[in-house]
Amino acid sequence: MDGTLMSGTLSSAGMAGQRVVIIGGGFGGIAAARALARAPVQVTLIDRRNFHLFQPLLYQVATAGLSPADIGAPIRSILRDQGNVRVALAKVTGIDTGARLVETEEGPVGYDTLIIATGARHAYFGRDEWEALAPGIKTIDDATRLRAKLLFALERAEIVSDPKRRKALLTFVIVGGGPTGVELAGAVAELARHVADRDFRTITPKDIQVLLVEAGPRLLPQFRESMSAAAARALTRMGVEVRTGTAVTEITPDQVVVGGEVIATNNVIWAAGVRASAAGRWLGAEVDRAGRVLVGNDFSVPHHPGIFVIGDTAAYRQADGTMLPGIAPAAKQAGEFVGALVASRFGGRTPRPFEYRDFGQLATVGRNFAVADFGRIRLTGFPGWLLWSVAHVWFLVGFRSRFSVASQWLWSYLTWERGARLITGAEVAMARPPETNAP
Amino acid sequence: MDGTLMSGTLSSAGMAGQRVVIIGGGFGGIAAARALARAPVQVTLIDRRNFHLFQPLLYQVATAGLSPADIGAPIRSILRDQGNVRVALAKVTGIDTGARLVETEEGPVGYDTLIIATGARHAYFGRDEWEALAPGIKTIDDATRLRAKLLFALERAEIVSDPKRRKALLTFVIVGGGPTGVELAGAVAELARHVADRDFRTITPKDIQVLLVEAGPRLLPQFRESMSAAAARALTRMGVEVRTGTAVTEITPDQVVVGGEVIATNNVIWAAGVRASAAGRWLGAEVDRAGRVLVGNDFSVPHHPGIFVIGDTAAYRQADGTMLPGIAPAAKQAGEFVGALVASRFGGRTPRPFEYRDFGQLATVGRNFAVADFGRIRLTGFPGWLLWSVAHVWFLVGFRSRFSVASQWLWSYLTWERGARLITGAEVAMARPPETNAP
After folding, report:
1. Across the interface, which of B48, B72, B423 has its CB nearest the CB of A50?
2. How far apart are alpha carbons B146 and B209 in whole angstroms?
3. What average pLDDT score do residues A288-305 get?
4. Which residues does residue A242 pair with via DSSP β-bridges, in sequence order?
5. HSE-CB of B270 using CA atoms within 13 angstroms
6. Average pLDDT of chain A, as a whole number
């Protein structure tokens, strides 16, 4: 630690106007930086990763449909042409609101205005010991680890002869019936059934069981009921057992207890809950049950002038009383709004009060079924999948990713090939199912 | 460990003819399996990875030009249509030649004929402590770790202000002037200079120093002298300092001693030597200095009837007295030969004595220079690069990879974009330059 992060560097670059620091290079942080492009401010974007991640497609990496580089783009490249931005790879450890310093492992960074967009991690409702047993996916590393775990289970099942062990290896339980859970269930069912059937000698589709468990009364609670039912029917057609109104009460290395029933499985995947990043703790600010910072109607933090929190880290109550949803378009719009608000202090146009434009909800179930709730339109079948694909590719940041993802999808769709089916990681053993049945 | 690997499974599949076990899914192992396609034998291919790796392009992964999935293909997919092959993901721990058993972490596998094609790792000439300081690239994980290390050095250099630390972060030393070292030096120079120049604010091309160090008198000793000189000139034009006849005598976390000169650097990359896998030890067979098993002119191991060793694990003396080179085409040809030889015992045509067909040597230096030594042809410039690309893509195993690599290369060439520039890995800290200058 030399404590000199940015100080020499940025001051020598000439510090015009205010120092705006953005923490987090997700949808919210990037949008805020872009909205400040013409403002006479010096923006520093800090992230502990060097890339922006298209999180809605993480489940495709976890199920071997896409490679990490397809859904990630270096933050530097995205902001390359914006002269008033510096990008710093650093892990934030705290915020000194008195001295107006963001503390990082590389040294402190001073700010006049601070925009926090640090997202969320999955949460286990107080059962933190489940994290190791039922991984969730929020980062690239989560996704590649889960991919290794799923593929390793198939490899192991191919060569073990004990029917009980084999059954546990070929049973996949996804916990949580929101969009991520639904998408994962569809993709796991496809991966396991179709690919395994082609490449493995001893595993047949009927050997594989995929369960989707949701504690609430229906899947996709954000959608209308008819949409939820359509998604459940589509999953059932794909061979996924959907269990709603059923809670997971216990997870061990080789079984899960679902609504009182014990199910032998080495593959539990968590898609049931998230918890906001540590921003609330850094600020000493008031947070909600999920750790999100309670913000005002301009995303400012009460009693912390000059600090804004956006995206999954913020609890924002809309004018109609409902909470702003924790999805990419909402984070993006909040980033645009806060960026414009800060810019307006330096001569930019004052933005109108924030109002979330709801473009609707989309969730995909396997290769050819998507539920799209645009208020009036519901799309299913290949057209629905195509709309979903186009919408996702459109929002991917870099052209390279758009091109790559589109060609991968087309290839995957036409051939059932899965391109990224590699078990990597220095410790393949990490992905191993536990040896609990060993003598 | 349930000790039942394959036994139940394979016996129930009906064991026609002999049990042939192949260890290793590289160029040699895959070729051997394919050559046995029509033989009435039961082939088991064991690898500790689930994918075949196109090793000649690993340096592209390490320098962020390609993604891991572009140069790897699942072994199961490659051999999907060959009914007499079983693929097992397992780590081999030893061979019991008396009982004719391959011992793995998943249990033993019996064989009648054994083909060992387990490749090589990089070697440090007895200085094993250098491995952590000067990583080499032989596996996907090696390559992604090196990629993270290189990218992290640039990120760190962007934000530190101490000129000495910055210089060490921006100095890259590649040890070893064979094809891998030459290709790495060219790719690192390109990555650091062109991409850094575009995406970083404080790093300019002149800040970056790339050194290629070779202890022998010239680069690419396998090529004719004029080719070696051409490669050295091309590297020099790209800004790489080439030092031949110069040995590395010491490596520490923040410096390297090259021909007596102390060079401050956090980035030493090893491409100087390899050592064969543990096969010699497993067999108790006679090995050469590099650990390669001395084999007869049909790749059989003396005193071990029914056991063959091929590829980088074997020391094979050709009829003209020279050793068979440790490159992909040689491993592939050896695999084809041994597979055919084993098949011939069951009615296949007896192959002619092994004779290596030398298709020449190819090495690329950056984006538009390749040296191709086909005996009479030498290609440089864009045509050389194009031939090199086509040759490599042609030999990539799966169509998906061919398609992906070709489109990536075209894209990269036209735009200077680097598609896979992500720093991943659960512990980014692993990639960090050491903190030796910290107070």
Report:
1. B423
2. 17
3. 95
4. A212
5. 24
6. 85
Confidence bin at A438 (pLDDT 50/70/90): very low
The mean of the pLDDT values for chain B is 85
Q: B165 and A140 in contact by Cβ < 8 A?
A: no
Pick from B214, B217, B272: nearest CA to B240: B214
Best residue of B151, B159, B414 to probe chain A, by most A CBs closer than 10 Å: B159
- Joined tokens for residue A267: 């593959």
Cα of B335 to nearest chain A Cα, Å: 23
Given the residues A106, A183, A214, A336, the one annotated as active site? A183
Torsion sign across C-alpha atoms B179, B182, B185, B188: negative
- What gap in Å lies between CA B31 and CA B336, rounded to an integer? 5
Which residues in B lie closer than 8 A to residue A438 (C-beta atoms)? 1-2
Q: Which of the four pLDDT bands, split at 50, 70 and 90, describes residue B222?
A: confident
Torsion of CA A178, A181, A184, A186, to 10 degrees: -70
What are the E-state strand segments in A208-315? Answer: 209-214, 240-244, 248-252, 255-258, 261-264, 267-270, 274-276, 293-294, 300-301, 304-309, 314-315
Query: What DSSP string describes A177-200?
Result: -SHHHHHHHHHHHHIIIIIHHHH-
Written as one string, the DSSP assignment of B22-63 is EE--SHHHHHHHHHTTTSSSEEEEEESSSEEE-GGGHHHHHT
A15 C-beta neighbours (distance < 10 Å), count: 12
Render B249-293 in DSSP notation, one character per residue: EEEETTEEEETTEEEE-SEEEE-S-EEE-THHHHHT--B-TTSPE
A192-201, B16-25, B232-241: least confidently modelled range: A192-201
CA separation for the pair B350, B333 (Å, rounded): 15
Mention every residue, 6+ apart, whose C-beta is less than 8 A from residue B289: none
The distance of B26 to chain A (nearest Cα, Å) reads 14
B375 to each of A162, B140, B306, B336, how far by Cα in Å? 57, 33, 37, 24
The answer to whether the CB of B290 falls within 8 A of the CB of B276 is yes
Structure tokens belonging to residue B352:
């002619």
Question: Mind spelling out the 3-state secondary structure of B172-231?
Answer: EEEECCCHHHHHHHHHHHHHHHHHHHHHCCCCCHHHCEEEEEECCCCCCCCCCHHHHHHH
* Amino acid letter, residue B398: G
How far is the CA of A333 from the CAs of A27, A312, A314, B330, in angstroms? 9, 12, 13, 58
Q: What is the pLDDT of residues A259-283, one digit of tens each?
A: 999 999 999 999 998 888 899 999 9
Q: What is the phi-psi region of residue A239: left when phi exceeds 0, alpha when psi lies from -120 to 50, beta otherwise?
A: left
Q: Do B68 and A439 touch (CB under 8 A)?
A: no
Residues of chain B found within 8 Å of residue A7, distances taken between Cβ atoms: 161
Torsion of CA A122, A123, A127, A132, to 10 degrees: 10
Residue A183 annotated in active site: yes
Question: Would you say B436 and B428 are in contact if contact means Cβ atoms under 8 Å apart?
Answer: no
Tell me the C-alpha distance between B341 and B31, whole Å: 13
Q: Which residues of chain A are within 8 Å of residue B161 when distances are taken between CB atoms?
A: 2, 4, 7-9
CB atoms within 10 A of CB B321: 6
Confidence tier at B435 by pLDDT (50, 70, 90): very low
Confidence of residue B413 (pLDDT cuts 50, 70, 90): low
**The model's pTM:** 0.84
Q: What is the ipTM of this complex?
A: 0.78
Whether the CB-CB separation of B215 and B247 falls below 8 Å is answered with: yes
pLDDT tens digits along B96-140: 999 999 999 989 999 999 999 999 988 898 899 999 999 999 999
| Confidence label for A17 from pLDDT (cuts 50, 70 and 90) | low
Residue A168 phi/psi, 5° resolution? Answer: -65, -35
